[in-house]
Amino acid sequence: MKIKTFVIGLTLCSGYAAAEPSDKQSMNVIPQAAQLCVSCHGAAGEGIEPLGPRLAGLSKEYISTQLQHFQAGVRQNATMMPMAMTLQGDGIEQVSSYFSAKPANDVKPVIRGEQVVFNDDTARLAYQGDWSRGLPACVTCHGPSALGGGLFPRLAGQQASYIKTQLLAWQSGTRKGDVDGMMGSVANKLTVAEIDALANYFANLK
Question: Which residues are listed for heme c 2 binding in this entry (predicted)?
Answer without folding.
Answer: 138, 141-142, 183
